[in-house]
Amino acid sequence: MSLSRKALVPLIPFACLTLLAFLAAPVVAAGDDDIPRTASGRPDLSGNYDVANLTPFERDPRLGDKQFMTAEEAERIAAGMAAADAAANAVSDPGREAPPPGGDGSAGAAGAVGGYNFFWLDFGNQAYPIDGRYRTSVLIDPPNGRMPELTEAGKARRATVNPYLYRNTGDAWWIEAGDDPYDGPETLTPGDRCIYTGVATTPVRSLPYNNLKTITQTDDHVVILVEWMHWAKVVRLNAEHPPAEYRSMGGDSIGWWEGDTLVVETTNFLDSQSDPRDGLKVIERFSRHGPNDLLYGFTVHDTDYAAPYSGELIWPGTDDLLYEYACHEGNYAMGNILRGARLLEKEYYEKKGQAASTESGSE
Predict the structure, then answer these.
(1) Within a domain: residue 159?
(2) Where are the beta strands (DSSP E) in 227-351?
(3) Predicted confidence (pLDDT) per residue in 277-322, tens digit
(4) Would residue 210 count as lying in a domain?
(5) Domain containing 348: what range?
(6) Which of 34, 292, 296, 313 is most enclosed, with most CB atoms within 10 A?
(7) What does the angle CA 184 – CA 190 – CA 8 come to, to the nearest 5 degrees?
């Protein structure tokens, strides 16, 4: 049994609840097609899955509409990741100098101040074939495997949403800008607050870490427990969405069976933490891909983009267990973000007061 890297040891009550949920699931019967099935005959999707996958989400634009790569090309991608992993985990020089103020400017979180080293990251170790063929991208529509263009409305909406990262300029720039990104916990992003990560939940993407999912299934509900940020996506089968004013960060999910495929429709999203996120609907499709894995497909209808986009990836079954993502309990970063902001504000007003005193003395 292995732990996912960022997860912490679970509390005993959580472990007990998880065990009870599995004990309450319908008895599984094997079908003639080797697909595990519930007592009611539906494909049994329950289990643990690690969706870390080296298949790129978007296709290299140089490949155009080339949808597949060879097994040798997929092996080279895996070898490249293994080499990068080994190099990043090599012993650091103990005599190295500290990075310059504001970071060294390299790509990623480590290029600025803070961030994880490679030990905490898990991009996966291979690309997974679908029906025996390796994809050049998770995205399959548009045909070029690239995200559609943003609409003007989408650009305008995104300009009003707080970004996840602000450039560290070393001063309290927000005072003169009239912004309040560091006013308190409620003005920080859902990611900073350990509340929700959309790209880990709906639709699901392979991410740098915390890629475990646990599915529990009954005849009228399917629950997908998402490791990052420990979000339980509850899918009500053969149900209807509530009125539009009932919303959450992860939206409202209903589902139905089309043959041996579970179709899930999610809408009624919140944007950020309180504003309605209109114009977004996600359709997901879950089906067995052999006895242990799932084939996961999604189509996103989003008015931010000029067209819908769709993708597919394998959810490989795993013996690893999804432990509690105890981000809130260890979220020292959020407190330190706010403390740092208060210090910068103090320096700002001290410098402003010194400047005013100097100008007054020179008169």
Answers:
(1) yes
(2) 231-237, 252-258, 261-267, 269-271, 275-277, 280-289, 293-302, 309-315
(3) 999 999 999 999 999 999 999 999 999 999 999 999 999 999 999 9
(4) yes
(5) 12-52+155-361
(6) 313
(7) 105
